[in-house]
TrEMBL record:
SMART domains: PH, RhoGEF. This is FERM, ARHGEF and pleckstrin domain-containing protein 2. Residues 396-406 have a biased composition (Polar residues). Residues 394-435 are annotated as: Disordered. Pfam families: PH, RhoGEF. Gene3D superfamilies: Dbl homology (DH) domain, Pleckstrin-homology domain (PH domain)/Phosphotyrosine-binding domain (PTB). Keywords: Coiled coil. Residues 287-384, 461-558 form the PH domain. Transmembrane segments: none annotated. Residues 169-199 form a coiled coil. Residues 67-258 form the DH domain. PROSITE patterns: DH_2 (PS50010), PH_DOMAIN (PS50003).
Length: 577
């Protein structure tokens, strides 16, 4: 795979107006990688790994070992990723819409006037953090580094300034809504949007990048909380960290409701793009609850289906054979009057339950008892909520789902149509060439699992970036990579300056642990990722960093049902098989 394209010269980007591009500013989006896209399993060569390893050992001995330093380093690493995420919109997407003249001026102004100022602020903030870490490490002015072994003053000053940007953040709700409306209305914009999502630089669904600014505030809050917990009240950095935490908490409290609404809307629009057979998934009042894989009992036996649970209905789909990676809706069941009950004994199928609705009855099986418990719990909760809501949910359903017969004969013909998918489902995610297969919908399909809106919210809090050394199960050397963990997925880059990932690894279904003696790993701070026979080892630079990677991956990829306390331990573990 070739080297990443050079970043467009950011200094030549004039941000005075939403269209303010210097003529010298040109982005070759094709060079940014239209053809081949990031692989779904890391295949980077490990050549030169051993040399990097020695260099790293030398550096580690020179650098500070204080936990506060590594927390500050985490702020730096995640800020670098956050700035790159903003550039997906401020630099790359802007260039794509201007090139095709695809966006009305009013929408251009709304979008970029609310994100450019935030981007500019964070460029300055990142420089400050880099300078402070450089002083802390003693690379310059070593004789005065004592005054610089802290981060609270930098955080306090910038959190205070960031408060002035709250009005921009509050507009992101409107930005997301208007962008979605415009893509539905304007075919040219829709085409540019879809084409842009195929670029390697757009490594997540595009509108997720619009959520990043509010989510970043949540990260500052969590990381400042960690610093305050680490310091004693007498530490010279404590007061600044505590005041910075107070400032950011005021902002997150004000924006919390907005974020919940935004995350729901983003998820509905993402599903709208990937589901065939529904026109108005983003209908007001509809909330996303869970998506995942279940096996539906049909005349031909158990058939793999994707199920999507919302506050007013349950949809089930199969993977389309069109090559677009979209899922085709087979049925929709209103929650009003629905009943769910376990039926393992009746059908002699493990982890099986029956869904009775006014229109039809379906029998489904989950991959594990834990998965069944999650689905039944969420279905019952959603049914109860639907009872309390008004009758308008029925109208929503009629208006949004395309007219389709619910006769069983229709069901059978659809089942036949998707026979090929059942075989393709056995192939692994690794063979997917289209990088939008990183959406949780596709990962759930191939890993035979499910994800709830609660899991998505937990994943937002558990994002991390930094350099790690990676080793495959059967290789000798360690390769240094810049790694970003977000949206249940590890993304691999050569360096933090790269504009797009070279490879990625979706972690749903993976178990994270420390290596055992049989693994033959003689190094410190190593964690092991395993899914069936797929095994990877990663080495962190410090105890703190190692613990953080273990913590975020565990939290984001394992989501026990609230009722799982009632399950025997072996059942709790079985979902990672």
């Amino acid at each position: 795979m070739g080297l990443p394209v050079e970043h467009p010269q950011l200094s030549s980007l004039v941000l005075k107006s939403p269209l303010g591009l210097n003529p010298a500013f040109q982005v070759n989006l094709n060079a940014a990688g239209q053809g081949s896209s990031p692989l779904l399993s890391p295949v980077l060569s490990d050549a030169g790994g051993a040399r990097m390893e020695e260099d790293d050992e030398m550096k580690r001995k020179r650098y500070p070992t204080d936990k506060a330093y590594f927390i500050a380093k985490e702020i730096l690493a995640t800020e670098r990723t956050y700035l790159k995420d903003l550039e997906v919109i401020t630099v790359w997407f802007r260039s794509a819409v201007i090139k095709e003249n695809a966006m009305p001026e009013g929408l251009m102004t709304l979008l970029f006037s609310n994100i450019d100022p935030i981007y500019e602020f964070h460029r300055g903030f990142l420089k400050e953090i880099e300078q402070r870490l450089s002083l802390w490490e003693g690379k310059t002015n070593a004789h005065v580094k004592g005054d610089y072994q802290r981060i609270g003053d930098v955080m306090l000053r910038n959190m205070h300034t960031l408060k002035e940007f709250t009005s921009y953040l509050q507009k992101h709700d409107e930005v997301l809504t208007e962008l979605e409306k415009a893509t539905k209305r304007l075919k040219k914009l829709e085409a540019v949007y879809k084409e842009f999502e195929l670029q390697k630089v757009c490594y997540l669904p595009l509108n997720t990048f619009l959520l990043k600014p509010i989510q970043r505030l949540m990260h500052y809050k969590l990381i400042l909380g960690r610093l305050c917990k680490h310091y004693t009240a007498e530490h010279r950095d404590f007061a600044d960290c505590r005041n910075a935490l107070k400032e950011v908490t005021e902002m997150t409290s004000r924006l919390q409701h907005s974020l919940i609404r935004l995350e729901n809307f983003q998820k509905l629009t993402e599903l709208q793009h990937d589901l065939i057979g529904i026109d108005n998934l983003t209908a007001p009042g509809r909330e996303f609850i869970r998506e995942g894989c279940l096996y539906k009992l049909t005349k031909k036996g158990l058939q793999q289906r994707m199920f999507f649970l919302f506050s007013d209905m349950l949809l089930y789909t199969s993977k389309g054979v069109t090559g677009t990676n979209q899922f085709k809706i087979h049925g929709h069941l209103p929650l009003h009057g629905m009943l769910v009950e376990e039926s393992e004994n009746e059908w002699a199928v493990p982890h099986c339950f029956t869904i009775y609705s006014a229109q039809k009855t379906i029998v489904v099986a989950a991959s594990t008892r834990l998965e069944m418990a999650k689905w039944m719990e969420d279905l019952n909760m959603a049914i109860e909520m639907a009872k309390k809501s008004t009758e308008k949910s029925d109208t929503l359903l009629e208006n949004s789902v395309c007219n389709r017969s619910n006769r069983s004969s229709d069901e059978v013909s659809l089942e036949q149509e998707s026979e090929d998918d059942i075989h393709s489902s056995r192939s692994s995610l690794d063979r997917q060439s289209h990088h939008r297969a990183n959406t949780t919908m596709h990962v759930c399909w191939y890993r035979n699992t499910s994800v709830s809106m609660t899991d998505h919210s937990v994943a937002v809090e558990n994002q991390l970036s930094g350099y790690l050394l990676r080793k495959f199960k059967n290789s000798n050397g360690w390769q240094k990579l810049w790694v970003v963990f977000t949206n249940f997925c590890l993304f691999f880059y050569k360096t933090h300056q790269d504009d797009y990932p070279l490879a990625s690894l979706p972690l749903l279904g993976y178990a994270v642990s420390s290596p055992v003696e049989a693994d033959g790993i003689q190094k410190d701070y190593v964690f092991k990722l395993q899914f069936k026979s797929h095994v990877y080892f990663f080495r962190a630079e410090s105890k703190y960093t190692f613990e953080r990677w273990m913590e975020v991956i565990k939290r984001a990829t394992s989501s026990p049902a609230r009722s799982s306390l009632l399950l025997p331990k072996d059942e709790k573990d079985s979902h990672t098989d």
